[in-house]
């Protein structure tokens, strides 16, 4: 069969398809369907919420309709009422997250490389990992008082472990064949660390960073539950206490949105740092 | 000893080399009193059944493993550990995925403290030598298996070693890529003044590339055999002499 023949059979096939589908519609579909695949369940859930609430399937004073939540969010942002809370919350999460990064990554790099250090610290690590940061919050309060320190510390504690464990995992998974290759070119321990181990661990470290960033924000609700009079987490509790349910959901939504932003920032950073790992860079 | 004469560059002497591993608590002898002299600029192929100790021998030569007894001399000096006069090409390309082709080729120059600029220009020359100049800025995942292996070869050549150690470097490639890479290797070895020790289990590859072939026996007390391949290059795989060598090797392996 010649080339032309192949083409003409293909052409016939195409003509068999419903020619009524206009180009524009198919372009819209090409744009919408991945979105739908990705966010379909979320959108469906939100739609269900809205309908259930307005139709009275659920108690609207407990699950207020979305438009009420959104307008509560908008009002408190536009009036500037929440801005102070956002600032103090970001400060708490930010300091805790930064400390977790500054301690977790170097410690993880050392633990992943030095068997002795890892063996010495591993039981401790496993123990603390199994103990939820929230369960230790009373202990932190007892030790550090009710002020800022214990709030930052409980968030730090919760964010430290994902970063630490991801970093250890990343270092341990480094291909030993690459290390051996570097060795044949006369690379010493430091060079191997800098040029092989560290770059190879970056993707794994980012997994931990992203998990920790989200945790740092969501944990505000718990951290600001006690002994706080400002903060997004405090607003969640306070609104609940005063039965301002739309405001409560608005504050939760705000935390979730901040989490999404933090995640997006980290994804962007990861893309820049790991261009080599992307399918079409 | 006084200064070695220039002709001694890349000469390898193996003396009474022995190595055994422990398997299930019992010693497993792999190399027993291996003696060998590889001439400067010579290309030696090592063949032998699977498990006969080819990789073990090469890793000791590379300085990646230690022998139990015996010694390796390079240009008359006993060596221990890795050294800048040797470069290794493994079966897998072992490229660093976060570096471009050019950066990968420059890697061995970087680790040896060659200046960035000098390293880049030398790397560029070797990328060209293996015909990948249009892929200088590609990342390893964008390369085919054969291309990646060529990058590995360029990286090894770029450090201008006296001795090139290769462990089944073409073993993972398809038959056609393999043949074209063998031709390329002959060309490269003619241009680069380097002693090569090549482990392979492809008898035809050994005859095509090597000046001499060392056959490692399976029984540890049998003597290793050496076969001289005295054919002009580039070699013709279908010439009667070539075919005769292949038959001789097959007979030695009891396959003919
Ligand atoms: N690190 C090790 N520990 C224990 N035994 C080993 C080790 N490395 C190799 N051996 C043993 O040494 C013997 C020779 O292995 P080697 O890898 O040198 O064989 P080879 O000739 O390269 O084989 P192949 O052609 O399959 O690559 C084998 O029996 C193997 O089981
Ligand atoms: Mg082997």
In short:
The complex is a heterodimer of chains A (about 280) and B (about 260). In chain A, about 80% of the residues lie in helices and about 0% in strands. Chain A is mostly helical and about 280 residues long.
Tell me the layout of helices and strands.
The complex is a heterodimer of chains A (281) and B (256).
Chain A: H1 3-16, H2 23-54, H3 66-78, H4 83-113, H5 115-130, H6 133-144, H7 148-172, H8 176-184, H9 189-218, H10 220-223, H11 232-241, H12 245-273
Helix pairs in contact in A: 3-12, 4-5, 4-7, 4-9, 4-11, 6-7, 7-9, 9-12, 11-12
Chain B: E1 12-23, E2 26-38, E3 43-48, H1 54-62, E4 69-74, E5 77-78, E6 86-89, H2 101-111, H3 116-129, H4 145-158, E7 163-167, H5 175-191, E8 195-199, H6 203-209, E9 212-216, E10 225-228, H7 240-252
Parallel strand pairs in B: 3-8, 3-9, 6-7, 7-8
Antiparallel strand pairs in B: 1-2, 1-4, 4-5, 9-10
Helix pairs in contact in B: 2-3, 2-4, 3-4, 6-7
The complex binds adenosine-5'-triphosphate and magnesium ion.
Walk me through the structure.
The complex is a heterodimer of chains A (281) and B (256). Chain A is mostly helical. Chain A folds into two domains: 3-63, no CATH class; 71-273, MetI-like (MetI-like fold, Orthogonal Bundle). Chain A is 80% helix and 0% strand. Chain A contains twelve helices and no strands. In chain A, helix 7 crosses helix 9 and helix 9 (189-218) runs antiparallel to helix 12 (245-273). In chain B, a hairpin with an 8-residue loop joins strand 9 (212-216) and strand 10 (225-228). Chain B has a domain at 1-85 and 164-172 and 194-256: Rossmann fold, CATH 3.40.50. In chain B, helix 3 packs across helix 4 and helix 6 (203-209) crosses helix 7. In chain B, the strands form two sheets. Chain B has a six-stranded mixed beta sheet, with helices on both faces. Chain B has a four-stranded antiparallel beta sheet with strand order 2-1-4-5, with helices on one face. Chain B is built from seven helices and ten strands. Chain B is an alpha/beta fold and 256 residues long. Chain B starts with 11 loop residues before the first strand and ends with a helix. Chain B has helices at residues 54-62, 101-111, 116-129, 145-158, 175-191, 203-209, 240-252, and strands at 12-23, 26-38, 43-48, 69-74, 77-78, 86-89, 163-167, 195-199, 212-216, 225-228. The radius of gyration of chain B is 19 Å and the shape is globular. Classes of the chains: A mainly alpha (281), B alpha/beta (256). Chain A binds chain B through residues 177-178, 180-187, 191, 195-196, 199-200, 202, 274-277, 281, and chain B through 62-64, 82-84, 86-88, 90, 92, 94, 96-99, 107-108, 110-112, 139-141, 159. Chain A: It is a multi-pass membrane protein. Chain A: Residues 86-266 form the ABC transmembrane type-1 domain. Chain A: It is found in: Cell membrane. Chain A: The chain crosses the membrane at residues 28-49, 94-112, 124-146, 152-171, 192-223, 243-269. Chain A: It holds the Pfam family BPD_transp_1.
């Amino acid at each position: 069969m010649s080339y032309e023949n192949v083409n003409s059979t293909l052409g016939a096939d195409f003509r068999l398809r419903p020619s009524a589908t206009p180009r524009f519609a198919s372009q819209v579909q090409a744009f919408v369907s991945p979105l739908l695949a990705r966010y379909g369940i979320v959108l469906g859930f939100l739609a269900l919420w809205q309908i259930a609430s307005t139709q009275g399937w659920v108690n609207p004073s407990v699950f207020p309709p979305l438009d009420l939540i959104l307008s509560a969010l908008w009002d408190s942002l536009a009036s500037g009422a929440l801005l102070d809370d956002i600032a103090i919350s970001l400060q708490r999460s930010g300091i805790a997250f930064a400390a977790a990064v500054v301690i977790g990554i170097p410690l993880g790099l050392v633990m992943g490389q030095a068997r002795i250090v890892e063996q010495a610290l591993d039981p401790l690590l496993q123990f603390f990992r199994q103990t939820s940061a929230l369960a230790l919050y009373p202990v932190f309060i007892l030790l550090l008082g009710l002020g800022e320190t214990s709030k930052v510390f409980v968030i730090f504690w919760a964010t430290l472990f994902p970063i630490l464990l991801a970093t250890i995992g990343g270092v341990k998974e480094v291909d030993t064949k690459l290390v051996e290759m570097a060795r044949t070119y006369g690379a010493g321990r430091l060079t191997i660390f800098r040029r092989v181990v560290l770059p190879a661990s970056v993707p794994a470290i980012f997994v931990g960073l992203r998990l920790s960033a989200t945790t740092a924000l969501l944990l505000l609700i718990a951290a600001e539950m006690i002994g706080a009079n400002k903060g997004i987490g405090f607003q969640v509790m306070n609104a609940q206490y005063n039965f301002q349910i739309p405001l409560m959901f608005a504050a939760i939504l705000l935390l979730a949105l901040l989490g999404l932003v933090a995640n997006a920032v980290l994804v962007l950073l990861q893309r820049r740092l790991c261009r080599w790992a992307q399918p079409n860079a | 000893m006084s200064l070695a004469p220039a002709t001694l560059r890349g000469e390898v002497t193996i003396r009474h080399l022995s190595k055994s591993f422990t398997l299930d608590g019992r010693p497993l002898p792999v190399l027993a009193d291996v003696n060998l002299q590889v001439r400067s600029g010579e290309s030696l192929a090592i063949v032998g059944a699977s498990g006969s100790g080819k990789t073990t021998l090469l890793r000791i030569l590379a300085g990646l493993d230690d022998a139990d007894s015996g010694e390796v001399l390079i240009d008359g000096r006993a060596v221990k550990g890795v050294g800048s006069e040797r470069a290794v090409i493994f079966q897998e390309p072992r490229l660093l995925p976060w570096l471009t082709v050019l950066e990968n080729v420059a890697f061995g120059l970087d680790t040896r403290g060659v200046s960035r600029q000098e390293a880049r220009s030398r790397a560029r020359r070797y990328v060209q030598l293996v015909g990948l100049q249009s892929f200088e800025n590609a990342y390893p995942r964008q390369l085919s298996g054969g291309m990646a292996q060529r990058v590995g070869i360029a990286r090894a050549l770029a450090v201008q070693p006296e001795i090139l150690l290769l462990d089944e470097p073409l073993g993972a490639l398809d038959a056609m890529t393999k043949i074209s890479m063998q031709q390329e290797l002959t060309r490269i070895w003619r241009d680069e003044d380097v002693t090569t020790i090549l482990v392979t289990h492809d008898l035809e590859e050994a005859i095509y590339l090597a000046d001499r072939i060392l056959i490692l026996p399976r029984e540890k007390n049998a003597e290793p055999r050496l076969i001289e391949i005295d054919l002009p290059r580039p070699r013709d795989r279908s010439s009667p002499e070539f075919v005769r060598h292949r038959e001789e090797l097959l007979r030695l392996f009891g396959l003919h």
